[in-house]
Amino acid sequence: MNDIKSGIQYVFQTRNRMTLAVSGTGHTAMECAIFNSVEPGESVLAAVNGIWGERAADMAERIGARVNTLVAPPGGYLTTSEIEKALSKHRPVVFFLAHGESSTGVLHPLDGIGELCYKYNCLFLVDSVASLGGAPLYMDQQGIDILYTGSQKVLNAPPGTAPISFSERACQKVFNRRSKPVSFFLDLNWLANYWGCDEKPSRMYHHTGPVTAFYSLRESLAVLSEEGLENSWKRHQSAAEHFYAGLEKLGLKLFVKEKHARLPTVTTIVAPHGYDWKEVTSYIMKTHNLEISGGLGPSVGLVLRVGLMGCNSSKEKVDMVLAALKDALEHCHRSKV
Ligand code: PMP
Asked: How many domains does the chain have?
C-alpha cells in the first residue's frame, strides 16, 4: 500500500500526504471526492463539457448541495474568463472539471484555473480518469486540490481501484466538516487511517481491500514509472497524431477542431456522412474483433469514439484501427442522399 501511495504521488506529480486508492472504479473516486468535500446546502459548480460534469452535478445534488453548471458546447471547452465569471457569481466551495472528457474527446486546458479557484476560496476538483498518463498533468503545480483517476485506462490494470489525492487545503475543509459524510465506506477519516495517511500509530480495519487489484495497481504504477511520465505523454501524443493523419487520409473528420484540445487517449471522429454509425461499429466488432463506441451523452449520434491508451497507444495499434475503419467504409451500406 505504501508503494501504491508513492506511485500515485509520482503519476499525479504531487507531494500530498493524503494520497491513496479507493476500492472501486472511477465513479467511487468521484463520489469519494464529492461526498467528503461538500456538505449539504453548500454551493458546487460543475463544468459540463460532456457526461462527466453532468454526473458530478448529479452526485452533488444527491447530497443536498446547491449545484450550478457551466456548459461548454459538445467538442468545446470553457475559457478561464467564463470560469472566473461563474466562480464569482456562484461562490462554490468546489469547482469540478473533467480534464479528459471521454464522451466528447476533449482535453480541457487546466492552466490558470487552479489560481482562480484559490482566489475565490474554492477547491479545484479534477477528473483525470481518461487522461492520466496520456497527457501532461501536474497536480501541485496546477493548483489542483482533489484529483482522481481509474486503474483501467492508461494504467492498464484491471478495473476496481481508483487513485485519489487531496491537497492540504482540501484536507482542511474535509476534516473540519460540521456533518459526517453521507458514505461510511468513502469517509476520508477512515480511508486516511486505512492507508496510513494520518498521524495514528496503527491502521484499523475499515473494509476488506481488493488485494489482488491492489497488487495489479502497484505493478501498473511501476510500469508507468519505469517508462517515465514524459515518455508516456509523448508516446500517446505521437500515436494520436499518427491516428489523426490516417483518419484524414480516409476522408474522416475529427470532432474536436482545436488541436491542443484533443484528448490523445480517446479520439472522437465525426460520424461518417451517409453511414449508419451502429452498422459501422458492429461490422468492425464482428469482422475485426475491435470495439469502437458511438457517442455518449451530448455526442450521441454525432461521433465514433476510439480509445487507444496505455499499451494500446502505439503506431501498430493505430494502423490496426485505421485498417478496420477503411474496411468498414468499403463494406457498410452508404446512402447516396
Ligand atoms: N470519468 C471519466 C472521464 C471516465 O472516462 C470514466 C470512465 N469511462 C469515469 C469517470 C468513470 O470511471 P469508471 O467507469 O471506472 O467508474
From this structure: 2
65: in domain: yes
Q: Which of 207, 226, 245 is the last residue of a domain?
A: 226
What is the best residue among 30, 34, 48, 52 to mutate for testing ligand 1's pocket, by most ligand atoms within 8 Å of CB?
52
Q: Is residue 336 part of a domain?
A: no
Q: Which residues line ligand 1 (CB under 6 A)?
A: 25-27, 52, 98, 100, 102, 127, 129-130, 150, 159
258, 123: one domain = no
Domain identity same for 218 and 233: no
Nearest residue by C-alpha to atom 13 in ligand 1: 26
Same domain for 26 and 130? Answer: yes
Q: 226, 254, 269: which is the final residue of a domain?
A: 226
Q: Is the pTM of this model over 0.90?
A: yes
Taking the CA of residue 98 as reference, the ligand 1 atom at the shortest distance is: 3
Q: State the distance from the centre of ligand 1 to the C-alpha of 125, rounded, in angstroms.
A: 15
Annotate 301-336 with three-state secondary structure: CCEEEEECCHHHCCHHHHHHHHHHHHHHHHHCCCCC
Q: Where are any strands of DSSP class E within the chain?
A: 18-23, 43-48, 66-71, 94-98, 100-101, 106-107, 123-127, 146-148, 161-166, 266-270, 293-294, 303-307
Binding site: residue ranges? 305
Residues 172-219 have pLDDT tens digits of 999 999 999 999 999 999 999 999 999 999 999 999 999 999 999 999
| Residue nearest to ligand 1 atom 1, measured at CA | 129
**Residue 298: pLDDT band with limits 50, 70, 90:** confident
Ligand 1 atom closest to Cα of residue 266: 5
Print the domain residue range for 300.
229-331
Residues 310, 149 contacting (CB under 8 angstroms):
no
Q: pLDDT per residue over 232-252, tens digit each? A: 999 999 999 999 999 999 999
Q: How far is the CA of 27 from the centre of ligand 1 (A)?
A: 6
Cell 454551493 belongs to residue: 43
